[in-house]
Design a protein that fits this description.
Largest sheet: 5 strands, mixed, barrel
Shape: globular
Strand content: 35-45%
Order of helices and strands: HHEEEEEE
Strand order of the largest sheet: 1-2-3-5-4
Helix content: 10-25%
Number of strands: 6
Number of helices: 2
Oligomer: single chain
Length: about 130
């Protein structure tokens, strides 16, 4: 039996190597990876890959919910993050949508437009997911 180990070295089990790597990785990077894996698992398009004027299905976690009051029509703006980039979801004429709060996981579908360089979907169809990836 041959080995590539130097005298006095031991071979770490593979799980221990993965655990050490995971512990050394910042938590935000781990969350990004989990969100990206959920996007892949759900068959959604990564936000970073969205093309202008295309129809897309995306999923991610709500980062913020903002009401932009307008003179005639209010606009509810939701920032969605999938681990690759953020996307603005804008519902015209809405002041709030029950269940959509920061931390909620959403699957959305609609036509993408770029507004000031930010991918945006107006009045998307959406589904609130109770547990990420399900």
């Amino acid at each position: 039996m041959t080995t590539d180990l130097r005298p006095g070295e031991s071979r770490k089990p593979r799980f221990l190597t993965r655990l050490t790597s995971r512990l050394a990785t910042p938590e935000s990077e781990l969350e990004d990876r989990e969100l990206q894996e959920d996007t892949w698992r759900m068959g959604a398009t990564p936000i970073a890959a969205l093309a202008d004027r295309s129809e897309a299905s995306v999923c991610g976690a709500v980062r913020s919910v903002t009401l932009r009051p307008r003179v005639n029509v209010p606009a509810l703006v939701v920032e969605l993050y999938d681990g690759s980039k953020t996307l603005n979801l804008i519902w015209l004429g809405r002041r709030r949508i029950g269940g959509i709060v920061p931390g909620t996981y959403l699957a959305v579908h609609g036509r993408v437009t770029y507004k000031h360089g930010i991918p945006t979907i107006f009045n998307p169809a959406y589904e609130i997911k109770p547990v990420r990836g399900h």
